[in-house]
TrEMBL record:
One of its GO terms (molecular function) is hydrolase activity. It comes from the Bacteria. Zn(2+) binds at H49, H51, H229, D311. The gene is add. Belongs to the metallo-dependent hydrolases superfamily. Adenosine and AMP deaminases family. Adenine deaminase type 2 subfamily. It catalyses: adenine + H2O + H(+) = hypoxanthine + NH4(+). The record marks H255 as: Important for catalytic activity. This is Adenine deaminase. It is an enzyme of class 3 (hydrolase). Its EC number is 3.5.4.2. Its cofactor is Zn(2+). Binds 1 zinc ion per subunit. It holds the Pfam family A_deaminase. Catalyzes the hydrolytic deamination of adenine to hypoxanthine. Plays an important role in the purine salvage pathway and in nitrogen catabolism.
Length: 376
């Protein structure tokens, strides 16, 4: 039992300990799993590869279905989550597109985006660039104003209330027609001030990046940035990476792990400082001659600008960026310095003004110093 004096001492000491300046705290790099977990949890982070519709958690699906008078073919949240079984991109996409049918109103998109941003802010994500798939919503008769409007309102509220900044990337669904993607782009361009870029997602098989050359050119002419998925182990993946880099002049590649199989493409990406948004949960392993290669480890070792991201966390065991980084640290034996480097890569390649970038980089540096870690 504590006596009264001990309790008073503890009460006084606790806030004082938290308020100690960085230089007064012991600067010791994480040395075991528990301190590594704390180091990763507190690390200032950025996220660039998260599909907002892929953050639609099962409990929110039930809440939105109820609000919109829809019924779902599952008894409860647990039964729905048990149905999230997939073995490749098409089987994943089927579950993912089925899931988003409950998103109908501006408020639904607000709730979706605010929910993700609240979770991300709780994990020390300072800044996020988030994908969305407007074609799937337009197809269901949802107006683009509701989609972009709801997400934008959530971004504003999250910045004010949670201190997390974010921007929005419109993705073309590559397995739908080029015409459908152009309709979505044309519908969204009046709101281009609410967007930072365009991307390319969905099923890559038979849908090479050049199918959208005109779309990327139009988006670029409107002042938007350009990124594109090159999913791992896809048919003609190295050709797609080459086209994305050389012909379409992409500024970033989402996934892109197979690049480790081409020294020539790696040299090109390195020389252009192309960032890669790796999502180890879904695309960590490149398969070569039937054997897995750890893409993240090899990309880092090759000096590529890699960041680590969560992709579709609601469908991937509800593992958000902290859990993804903890898993990646173990699977790829990431050192504390490499973890700092990964976040430095992310902040350095974010589509933000220099002043904002400098602020994030200064926070990252200060955090690393409190742990006695220098970025590798
Ligand atoms: N849509 C949502 N997640 C995706 C992914 N990882 N690859 C391609 N399309 C997607
Ligand atoms: Zn993705």
């Amino acid at each position: 039992m504590f006596d009264r004096r001990q309790l008073i001492h503890a009460a006084l000491a606790a806030p004082f300990a938290c308020a100690l300046p960085a230089w007064a705290r012991a600067a010791k790099p994480p040395a075991n799993a528990a301190s590594m977990g704390r180091f990763i949890a507190g690390l200032p982070k950025a996220e660039f590869h998260v599909h907002l519709e892929g953050t639609l958690e099962a409990d929110m699906k039930f809440a939105l279905a109820k609000r919109n008078g829809l019924s779902l073919p599952y008894a409860d949240v647990a039964a729905m989550k048990r149905s999230y079984v997939y073995h490749d991109l098409p089987s994943f996409l089927k579950i993912y597109y089925d899931g988003m049918q409950v998103l109908l109103t501006e408020q639904d998109f607000y709730d979706l985006a605010y929910g993700y941003l609240r979770k991300a802010a709780s994990q020390n994500v300072l800044y996020a660039e988030m994908f969305f798939d407007p074609q799937e919503h337009l197809k269901r008769g949802v107006a683009i104003e509701a989609v972009i409007g709801g997400i934008t309102r959530a971004r504003g509220d999250a910045a004010k209330s949670l201190g997390i900044e974010s921007q929005l990337i419109l993705c073309f669904m590559r397995d739908l027609s080029a015409g459908s993607a152009m309709e979505a782009l044309d519908a969204a361009l009046p709101y281009k001030d609410k967007l930072i870029g365009v991307g390319l997602d969905s099923d890559e098989k038979g849908n090479p990046p050049e199918k959208f050359a005109e779309h990327f050119a139009k988006a670029r002419a409107a002042g938007l940035h350009v990124t594109m998925h090159c999913d791992v182990n896809q048919e003609n993946t190295l050709e797609h990476i080459r086209t994305a880099l050389l012909d379409l002049k992409t500024e970033r590649i989402d996934h892109g792990g197979n690049i480790v199989q081409s020294p020539e493409l790696m040299a090109l990406a390195r020389s252009r400082g192309i960032p890669f948004t790796v999502c180890p949960t879904f695309s960590g392993q490149v398969i070569e001659d039937g054997r897995p290669i750890n893409a993240l480890r090899q990309m880092l070792d090759a000096g590529l600008k890699v960041s680590v991201n969560s992709d579709d966390p609601a469908y991937m065991g509800s593992e958000y960026i902290t859990e993804v980084l903890i898993r990646a640290q173990k699977d790829s034996t990431l050192t504390p310095a490499e973890l700092v480097r990964i976040e430095r890569n992310a902040f350095e390649t974010a589509w933000i003004p220099a002043q904002q970038r400098d602020g994030y980089l200064a926070r990252l540096k200060a955090y690393a110093q409190t742990w006695g870690v220098t970025a590798g």
